[in-house]
Write a structure and sequence with these properties.
By secondary structure, this protein is of the alpha/beta class. It has helices at 12-15, 86-91, 94-101, 147-162, 177-188, 209-219, 232-235, 263-273, 289-306, and strands at residues 30-37, 40-49, 54-62, 72-78, 104-108, 165-175, 196-199, 246-251, 277-282. The chain has nine helices and nine strands. 47% of the residues are buried.
Length: 308
Amino acid sequence: MYLACIINCPAIRAFGKHCRPLSNIMTGLTELSRNKSFGGWQTVFSHESKVLGCTMKCGVYLPPTENDTENLPVIYWLSGLTCSEANFIEKAGAQRYAAEHKVIIVNPDTSPRGLNIPGDSDSWDFGVAAGFYLNATQDPWKNNYKMYDYIIKELLDLVNSNFNTQAGNQSIMGHSMGGHGALVLSLKNPGLFKSVSAFAPICNPSICPWGIKAFSGYLGPKETGQWEEWDATELVKKYKGPPLELFIDQGLNDNFYPAQLNPKNLVEASKGAGVPVIFKERESYNHSYFYIASFIGEHIGYHAQHLK
């Protein structure tokens, strides 16, 4: 429905009139799968990323609409450690709520893939599936591990060029490492996202084991690596921009809470900086997608209100 007809789209004949006129053809996306879901279409695309220097995948949920020309807002989802684009699509149950609120949901992969950089697959919390949504400055990562630039400078444009979006009317959310990414991207780009929310985010990576490992490898020593530029708890202290509310969601039976996540550090820093925070603590919920699926509807509804 929203898909711009592209030369390598296998669904062109099947969808015919729902594709944009050939004068609007955009190259660069290859459709890998398409499944009907809650009246819309859950799709997965691949493309060659100039920023990352590899083939990347992303999920795009296209909700049902009254006509094939309606422009819709977009919510970006960033996943956590060990995940690909598939986890959110298959486990979060977001399609139902995206269809209800008529929002497009885009969820990219969590790191570059297929580069075979020495050491990129040695551990589950660094390298492949652990890009941490920053721009690496250290060898051998700095040429490819630039997930921040990928999303801000490449993915947003790619989505707006190929789908019927309300350009500039977008929000962002994520989980764990992806919650960290959502917070950092929104705080570093005032006004770019209308709202931000995070499930069990890594809120203060400069002081937790996951963050220290990632920042040391990608950015170098804390003394010279400017870790504070990629730490939401530090970034919120100097936030200058349009009003922004942080929606932080935390399960209280999360085995990574508080040591890896430290949400209360971000809550206190936000209060000190005058940035409003919603902090919801969920009794008995853990770090899994069972937790995310339980509250994803609330988060999508929250963003939909900000995207009206």
